[in-house]
Amino acid sequence: MADDKDEILGDHRWQRTILVPPLVDSVGGSMQMVRWARERMPDFLWIALMYDAVGGKRTVDIAIACAEEAQEIHDGGDFVLSSDYDEFSPSEFSSLKEALDDDVLEDLFHGLEPLIAHYPSYPKASLFDETPPEEDHHLGYLAEIVNELSDRRSHLSTYVQGIFVGTLMATGGKMISPDSPLADINEVFRYPDTEKSRELASVVRASTKATNASNEAEENQSDWARRFWQRGFEITECIFPQEDKEAEEQGTHPDQEFFQNLAAIGHEYETELRTTLLDLWWNAKHDAEFTGKHEVLDGLLLRQVNLATSLAGTPAMWSHDIGSIILRCMAETHITLEWLSQEGDRSDYQDFIEYGLGQEKLLLEHSKNVASEFPNEEVGDLEQGLDDLERKIETQRAMYLLPVDVGHWADKNTRELAQEADCKDVYDMRFQQYSAAVHGQWNTMDKANLVTCHNPLHQYHKIPEFRPVYKNPYTVVEAGNLMNRSFSSWIEAREINAEDPQIPDLAGSVKQFMRKWNDR
């Protein structure tokens, strides 16, 4: 049996159930991701504001002047980043203010005015005797700068990182060899117009990462960065994505007709599918020995029919959440059907039945245990239901002889069943993909239940998606594809002798409709 461990992500190393990337593996798993925008960007914001206010050359001069004078006053630190100045005492700020030229202080105040006005805890605010008034345009301007700076590869971010690295070089915080690409650091201001500037930009970004990686602090985010984001929530509100409220309120959403037509295709498909299935089933053989084979196969196919047709005719179920859960059920059902069709013998069908009945027996015992804790007069309906369940089990297996298996009915996991039945593609591309929705994992909530806040001062965090769920018609296409495969497997397993049975094609009908709709 082929093992796909050697085929997919082959450069990763297996550590129990985890695939560890090569770089992380090489450093013993101690490497942590540094999120530029959230953890590092607030420290570089002052450089971006100065660049926008007075240009690159003047910003370099100011950054060097501040760093050199600060290093004379306070031992330790490069004093290029905003958070470096959190270590300064009031008296040290007074000394720094006296050491800096008046024109430097004037330019600093002018460039940092929006930041100082709205973020009183900004470290360098102590350089100034007064706090500028809050202007209406300040927050919008800050949001624009933060938005561009959040992209580490943007023009502004590249220039800012170049100024940072250049200042470190000028003040002794970073030593380079004469033949280093960084020797011509000013070339970064020509980014991205020349090949040399593009190569230098890559080196600059790597140097900025390396500078952060050398910091052995437990957390990558500075105190100032935390204060910056917290203040953003205090002074601004979340911004939801735009939505067509008027159309939704009036029931005239432009997609309404589209989804109604698709649902009509689903209803027509259900009628044709059930008619076709009934005709084929009447011509199928009977299981005179009552092995359970035909019952299991028929049950699995009808499960697929019910899932596919319920999905196809109900647009509300085409969301990522609900649609994925149904498709995951269909994928697992198909793998079971395919494995039983190709590999199953009489004992496997019996095991499948006994496993399910064993689960009912276990549920029955749990329910009886819960019911025993309530007064008799409060469990009348429940007791009747438990009696009915017990009789239903007894009609198929004697309770005292029925084992309860808490593992998997086939002593194999779903992946192994898919491999043996030669339908591993269903497992890889459907079962695994849609399992996230069943278990409520982050990757499905991120798509279905959350949206990105459009406020740059909130660092584009995730907020609840309060709007009606997005309907994805390709969910119906997926259901149709799985239904076709399961129907074909069932016909083969049931040894139905029918010449070229015409199975209704839901996937084909939906795709044809969407092509015509798009061509209107």
Automatic annotation (TrEMBL):
Q: Which InterPro entries match?
A: DUF5677
Q: Which domain of life is it from?
A: Archaea
Q: What is this protein called?
A: DUF5677 domain-containing protein
